[in-house]
Specification:
The complex is a heterodimer.
Chain A: H1 4-14, H2 20-32, H3 34-51, H4 62-73, H5 91-108, H6 144-147, E1 189-190, E2 196-197, E3 202-205, H7 210-220, E4 224-227, E5 244-250, H8 254-264, E6 266-268, E7 280-289, E8 309-316
Chain B: H1 2-10, H2 14-22, H3 26-48, H4 51-68, H5 78-104, H6 115-119, H7 133-146, H8 149-160, H9 165-172, H10 176-194
Helix pairs in contact in B: 2-3, 3-4, 3-5, 4-5, 5-9, 8-10, 9-10
The chains are: A alpha+beta, B mainly alpha.
């Protein structure tokens, strides 16, 4: 009586997935069929063998490591007034110094010709960096200013940015994978956990309209751009405090995307695009201006000739359809 | 105060946590990580057979979830969605590893070409007795390696992660009947592979 349909009933029986009526029929069959009973016994032994595996717990510190990576990749913007509390408990003094500096700047004007030293306040933000907000060991040097912004209870609103309400289309089942271990990552960058953090592209460009160009390129290639918090970005009007984006595009457009990025400036490759063979890839993008004043892309930085932008791309995993 | 917040988060449902996350509460995501880290890591470890890779995959899974959770509509359970992300990441990682292996003609960490033959001791005294737990684990892993991917994933989800047929059906986009038949065939295959190493003595 151990026909194929009956056999399938055995597994469902062990799993409690049969109806009362099916159980009744199967138990009647078992009572008169020794071979069926033997098969049930064998399957039960397999299931017990599997259950003997026992529970597995995530490694110690796993939770912290995940949250550290999230903080690193998706730094939360501080409210505009937060900098008044910094640095190091000297709010009024800091405010006074900043006010004096602004007055001097307004009267004297921006010093001409020379570019400000690299590493000064990025043009894309109006929130100064807080040096002690995150462990320095986990930060890449270029990201220090950005990532040092402390985390408020909630992400800051996306100021000065047009954000459509169009829902981002769900991604297909994960087809792209970031990498396959430390041995596969070129020049791994250690974080606090000692794990390698794969880097993406780094583009250093003098193009002040880089974001506008980027949006146009992504649109042309059939991709979408969202903020780190998932809000669609429809305009190149860029709040000075925001520079992190996620770009989702067809993976077969990755080469074209890279080519367009190359046109923006010096492109440094730091990942293997053979990793991305799925239907879609999502790319985390950070626009960073290493020098110059404040402003938006649409306005243009006040001193374009001195400005230098850097883009950093970290690959994301394509996700299954969001349901 | 922090303890109170943590305690409150601990009692929130998955749907409430997702809702809070969408409102910008990062602490809600922290609780999701805390809630699912063992299950995610467990499945990744069983799939990848390498602790380091499993940890990497698990971290990547949560990073990917963070990026996309705002678009989660809640049509399926959060747990199902998370498992689907884990499964896809593991598949992709294995696929990539296999491709590299083919490209480079080199054995990679965690792969066992000779599989069960290397794991199961040769015929001899005592091999029919109940094996030690660690040895049993090795036996099982080697046997699982002998299954094809579709069989192995369903065994992992049902017999190790303890998911129900409906959830597996939803997760793998398979009809319930297919889950049932595939699971049964996988168990039969495992029983055949494990053979005499299965202890059926005390099974009624």
């Amino acid at each position: 009586m151990s026909t194929a349909p009956a056999d399938e009933r055995l597994s469902a029986y062990l799993d409690g997935e049969l109806t009362d009526e099916e159980v009744e029929h199967l138990e009647a069959d078992l009572a008169r069929d020794a071979a069926l009973r033997a098969e049930l016994k064998r399957l039960r032994a397999v299931v017990r063998f599997l259950h003997d595996e026992g529970p597995v717990r995530a490694p110690l510190g796993f939770h912290n490591a995940v949250m550290a990576r999230i903080d690193e990749e998706h730094p939360v913007r501080a409210p505009w007034w937060a900098w008044l509390r910094r640095p190091f408990g000297m709010p009024m003094e800091g405010l006074a110094v900043a006010a004096v500096a602004l007055l001097v700047l307004a009267v004297v004007g921006w010093p001409g010709g020379e570019a400000p030293p690299e590493g000064e306040a990025p043009v894309w933000r109006d929130v100064p960096a807080e040096p002690d907000a995150a462990p320095a060991a986990m930060k890449a040097p270029k990201m220090e200013a950005e990532e040092a912004v402390p985390e408020p209870p909630r992400p800051a609103p996306q100021t000065k940015r047009e954000a459509s309400t169009k829902e981002v289309s769900p991604e297909e089942p994960a087809a792209a994978d970031k990498g396959a271990g430390v041995d596969e990552e070129p020049a791994p960058k250690p974080d606090v956990t000692g794990r390698s953090v794969p880097k993406g592209y780094v583009v250093v460009t003098e193009d002040v309209g880089a974001l506008r160009t980027l949006l146009a390129v992504v649109g042309k290639l059939g991709g979408t751009v969202t903020t780190a918090s998932g809000q669609p970005v429809a305009s190149a009007t860029m709040a000075s405090s925001s520079e992190s984006f996620s770009i989702t595009m067809p993976s077969d457009a990755l080469a074209s995307f890279e080519s367009e990025l190359t046109k923006l400036g010096m492109l440094q490759r730091d990942f293997d695009d053979k990793l991305y063979y799925g239907e879609e890839v999502s790319v985390a993008v950070t626009l960073q201006l290493a020098g110059g004043g404040v402003g938006t892309v649409d306005d243009g930085p006040p001193n374009a000739a001195r400005s230098k932008k850097a883009m950093e791309y970290d690959m994301e995993q394509a996700l299954p359809e969001v349901r | 105060m922090l303890m109170i917040l943590l305690a409150l988060a601990h009692h929130l449902s998955d749907a409430e946590l997702v809702s809070r996350f969408k409102e910008g509460d990062r602490q809600a995501f922290s609780e999701i990580v805390r809630r699912y880290q063992d299950r995610v890591y467990s499945l990744a470890l069983r799939w990848m057979r390498d602790r380091h890779v499993a940890e990497e995959v698990s971290q990547d899974v949560f990073l990917a979830l963070f990026r996309s959770l705002a678009r989660f509509r809640g049509d399926s359970q959060l747990s199902t969605w998370i498992y689907r992300v884990v499964v896809n990441h593991c598949k992709n990682r294995k696929l990539y590893r296999n491709r590299r292996k083919m490209d480079q003609h080199e054995a990679l960490e965690g792969e066992r070409d000779d599989g069960l033959e290397r794991q199961i001791p040769a015929e001899g005294p005592g091999t029919d007795a109940t094996v030690h737990r660690d040895e049993a684990r090795e036996l099982l892993h080697a046997a699982l390696d002998k299954l094809d991917d579709s069989q192995r994933e369903i065994i992992l989800l049902r017999d190790i992660q303890d998911l129900g047929y409906e959830e597996i059906s939803d997760l793998l986009d398979l009809p319930r009947g297919t889950v049932k038949s595939r699971l049964h065939r996988a168990r039969q295959q495992l029983a055949t592979i494990l053979g005499r190493h299965l202890n059926t003595e005390d099974i009624v």
